[in-house]
Amino acid sequence: MNLDDLDLLFEDALKSLSPNDFLNHIEKALDCYQVLSFNFERGSVFWRARKIQSNFYKHIDDLSYPPKDLVNCGRINDKESPFFYLASRRETALAEINSKENDIIQLAGFKIKENENLRIAVVGEFWNVFKTGYVKFLGQDPKGCINRLINSSSKDLARNLIYIDKYFSEILADTKAVENEYLFTRTLSNELLKKAHTDAIAYPSVKDAGAYNLAVEANKSDIVFENVICLTLKIKSIKKWGIYDYRILSAAEGIDENGNFIWHKNTEFTKTTIYNLTKSEMDKLKKIDNVDLSHFNSISKADNY
To answer: pTM for the whole thing?
Structure first.
């Protein structure tokens, strides 16, 4: 196939009226596409946001995925097939729920548990490396592996791979996907997950240009993630380029044995309370910042997360 063939293939695929029809059109592209996947361990914080009225959500499950019988078709998930949706940045989580001025938001941060790992398929990174030289979701091209893969292929194969990668990322981040009940995004993501043999996929954010979202199959998310931050915020204003000016109203200092948030009694917050940290993470924070960690599980500068 050349790029003209791919253009025709993509054009016909977007006329599809069923998952099978769409798959039949993109089958050749899928066959020559290599799905990038990376094994993630404990490290980054992933974010999830929900709008609230006056009362915050009291239980950690309230910030999780909905029950199976309430799950409609989503960008990655089929009906009654819940996925746990997260964002790579705080601002991305706020953008994804269309946060507006004066909105009250409950924002939760999650980390992969110690001794757990999650293999994540990532779409759009061949294009990112081709254009910028680095991987947006990871922040870098690990050991130059993506560049080497592109450069070790023939010119035509490399160009096709990059072209298909960009097309797939555009499909997954289509702003009009809801109009056909996410037919193309669901079908494509399911195929990419199967091809990568994983339960999680990272894809470009629809609402926050340059950022990424993460969707994880519900049961897998229960195994690998734990909550480490929970805040309630009031959006003061929304600045240019997706920057949010907000005030922290309250912060959890932990979760009790029943899964309920334990809320901080203070009302002034210059630092973000982090809990459920490992000993090594605690030791690292002690070296970075001279703070009293005796009252909480841990505290770190907000800008670090």
So the answer is: 0.88
